[in-house]
Amino acid sequence: MEAMLWGGFASSLATALGAVPVLFMRSLSHLWKDVLLAFAAGIMVSASMYSLIPSALDLSSLTVVAIGVLLGTVTLTLLEKLVPHIDLEHAAGGSVFPAKMPLERRSILFLTAMTLHNLPEGLSVGVSYASGREDLGPLVALSMGLQNAPEGFLIALFLIVNKVPKAAAILFAFFTGLLEFVSCIVGYYMTSVVSGLIPYGLAFAGGAMLFIVYKELIPESHGHGYERSATFAFIIGLLTMIVLTETLG
Ligand SMILES: [Zn+2]
Question: 207 C-alpha vs ligand 1 centroid, how far in Å?
Answer without folding.
Answer: 13
